[in-house]
Amino acid sequence: MRAPGIVHHRTRRRRALRRRVVWTGGEVLVTVGVLLMLLVVHQLWWTNREARQGAERKVQALEREWERGKSARPRESSPAVEGDGPVSGTPSPGREKQRQTRTGDSEGAANNTSPQPSWSQAYAVLRIPRLGLRVPVAEGVSKQNVLNKGYVGHYKDTQQPGRAGNFALAGHRNTHGEPFRYLNRLRPGDTVTVETEAATFTYVVDRTLPQTSARDGGVIRSVPRSTVRPSYGYTEPGYYITLTTCTPEYTSRYRLVVWGKLRSMRPR
């Protein structure tokens, strides 16, 4: 038979060991929780702060550069020509000719004064008044070199602003500046402007595709039309802009798409 004192001593040691294990486990869980909280703060606050400040500095740098270039060019007396409303349906021959003339003039100006942007280079400014958005546009959709800087990225092999076809862009909806956080708030008739060194292009929001596959390449084609939901999109060539971002928020499973049509071009 074991002595009662020895049994009591071993029981106390086991209880102390269990308390240490529980305490250590609690400390580990608290530490992990703090690290996760810091990670969330970094992703949701710090990356947004850094990206937004960097994007705003880039916008200001582009505007200063363009202003210096404008001051160095000789003044022209010919006034700018603007459109007379959203482009929709089949325009009359007169309006179509006028639109083609504006496009040709702007393309010529862009070709003469702005070389093809280098990969990841910021070369334009996107403005969306309804969202209070002013953000640089860079060539390509690289996360590290473009999107994570708070910029909007231009899809490779889609057209440049103001040219016939589709000027397609992508931007983060959450973290890293989240320029397209509220893209779902855009409505038909809202304006979207793209300013380059050569001209300012104004598009009018025309329609929205609330959700489609991340692999739906049809939405950024020259004549944009969803291959997943074919009832969304267009059937005729035109002058389009496409804005894409992830949906639902805080996921990257699907894509939200907003389309618009070119309304006017104003040379700088």
How would you write the strand order of the largest sheet? 1-2-3-4-7-8-6-5
Say what the CATH topology is: Sortase, Chain: A
Q: How large a portion of the residues is in β-strands, by DSSP E? A: 15-25%
Determine the fraction of residues in helical runs and give it as a percent range. 25-40%
- Uncertain segments are 77-114
Distance between the termini: 102 Å
Element-level helix/strand string: HHEEEEEEEE
Domains (count): 1
Basic shape: elongated
Give your account of this protein's structure.
With 268 residues, the protein is an alpha+beta fold. The chain has one domain (38-73, 88-267): Sortase (Sortase, Chain: A), CATH 2.40.260. The protein has two helices and eight strands, in the order ααββββββββ. The chain has helices spanning 4-72, 93-113; strands at residues 122-128, 133-139, 152-154, 165-170, 191-195, 199-213, 239-247, 254-267.
